[in-house]
Design brief:
Length: 468
């Protein structure tokens, strides 16, 4: 009887993968002369093909128990455990298989993939490199190696591995996408765009259009980037694609278009927190604080410990100079429960100071500002608000020290110069007051510039977190 145990080259569906599944299969075993053993092995493989994994496992376990050191048995049983997502059980078997057949690139790749699944990335990388060195023409191994390099934040090496894989499988769309993403991450957007532009049916692939948009954006081709984002949404109006279209508008400060995109996205994906975050940011950028405030307040109420939501609400409340802003009360709750958050304390105190001036509000504002200054004495806004509070309490002379500290920390702080000028004039220091008033006029545009800078920071944060 011909020993077919020598010739197993099976691919087990759903086995070791680095998403999407890479099927490395099995390699040639060492000779086995036992026909009964061969028959039992083939029965196990047949059972597995029929989906009877329990019977297959029982047969392979019996073989493994009575016949140690048989590569095909160890590898097959290991891959069966993989098919059942039992990676810890698979690992020692695949390690045995790799020792039994050290020249098998397939065995090393299977072992590396199991190690990856168990988060043993260093060992996995070592085995994939060994597998690739043994057989550099195996496109699946090269692709898996590339993805592991991506996991370990080595995009240049990943791009090289993907390029090798593409040389042997040039029509593989997933491989091309992998290489394009690696090139993007490695800082080569133009190469990524050129690669994507040459893909077959690129105009009909939403992921390709989205990645091409990212490449164009990074290359400064903003008009083309917008077209590609829009095409991605047209092909696949999913939450990630709608989000990126909104981000594109927000990135370039086309706020009305961003509001429209995020509002539609929020309606379609009501559970998407980031869609509502984008909408609030678009309202903020457009100067529509009446809409921005309840949007951020809803987010903060839903996640009471979220510091970003609190800061965005605080910025919006401080920017809304006119009109009642009852939803800003969420700031006070956050600040009182997070006394170490100096900025939140300042935002909440500012709303109290700018609201109804009664003894309770002044007491709370003073308490919040004392906390803020204790936590961060170099926060200019905290010193400024304390100066304003003292002036509201008619302590003009007492406000000077805080306001002087505010302009020392932030020399172009226009509002602080104005308040300091009033304090100096009220205290008989006319020459100093006039000098401060001149500085206020010099820096008069700084308030809007501060909001613009914060908006840039918000936009950058949203863009950087768009893949979360």
């Amino acid at each position: 009887m011909t020993n077919t145990l020598l010739k197993t080259g099976r691919l087990l569906p759903g086995c070791l993968c680095l998403a999407p599944a890479f099927l490395f299969g099995q390699s040639l075993a060492t000779p086995v002369a036992d026909d009964a053993m061969e028959q039992q092995f083939q029965e196990a493989i047949a059972a597995q093909d029929k989906g009877d994994l329990d019977h297959a496992q029982s047969l392979l376990l019996e073989l493994h128990s009575h016949h140690r050191g048989i590569f095909a048995v160890d590898e097959s049983l290991g891959l069966l455990y993989v098919a059942r997502q039992q990676f810890a059980s698979a690992l020692p078997l695949l390690q045995e298989a790799a020792r039994e057949n050290p020249s098998s690139d397939v065995a090393l790749a299977n072992l590396g993939a199991a190690q990856f699944k168990l988060h043993h990335n260093g060992e996995a990388l070592d085995n994939f490199q060994r597998a690739a060195a043994l057989n550099p023409n195996n496109a699946a191994t090269q692709q898996a190696l590339g993805r592991l390099w991506m996991e370990t934040h080595e995009p240049e090496k990943a791009a090289a591995a993907f390029a090798t894989a593409l040389d042997h499988d040039p029509e593989n769309h997933d491989l091309a996408m992998d290489r394009a993403q690696a090139l993007m991450d490695a800082g080569h957007p133009r190469q990524a765009a050129d690669l994507l532009a040459n893909l077959a049916a690129v105009d009909e692939s939403a992921p390709a259009q989205s990645l091409l948009a990212d490449a164009d954006e990074a290359s400064g081709n903003y008009a083309e980037a917008g077209k590609h984002y829009a095409r991605a949404v047209e092909l696949d109006p999913s939450e990630p694609n709608v989000w990126m279209m909104g981000i594109e508008y927000l990135r370039h400060w086309t706020f009305q278009a961003a509001i429209k995109e995020f509002a539609a996205g929020e309606e379609k994906f009501p559970h998407s927190t980031r869609m509502r975050l984008g909408l609030g940011s678009a309202y903020f950028g457009d100067g529509n604080y009446v809409e921005a405030i309840p949007t951020f307040a809803d987010l903060l109420d839903a996640d009471p410990d979220n510091r970003l939501d609190a800061e965005l609400l605080g910025l919006s409340c401080m920017a809304a100079i006119q009109g009642a802003t009852p939803r800003c009360s969420s700031l006070l709750h956050f600040a009182q429960s997070h006394p170490r958050d100096a900025k939140a304390s300042v935002y909440a105190a500012s709303k109290l100071i700018g609201g109804q001036l009664n003894d309770e509000n002044m007491r709370l504002a003073r308490q919040l500002l004392d906390h803020a200054i204790a936590v961060d004495p170099k926060l200019p806004d905290a010193q400024y608000e304390m100066g304003v509070l003292k002036q509201d309490q008619m302590d003009w002379a007492g406000s000077i020290a805080n306001l002087e500290q505010a302009v020392k920390l932030k020399p172009n702080f226009a509002r602080a110069h104005y308040r300091l000028a009033l304090a100096c004039l009220r205290s008989g220091r006319r020459q100093e007051g006039e000098a401060e008033m001149a500085l206020q006029r010099r820096y008069a545009e700084q308030q809007q510039s501060d909001l613009d800078e914060r908006l840039r920071q918000i936009t950058t944060f949203l863009v950087d977190s768009h893949n979360e």
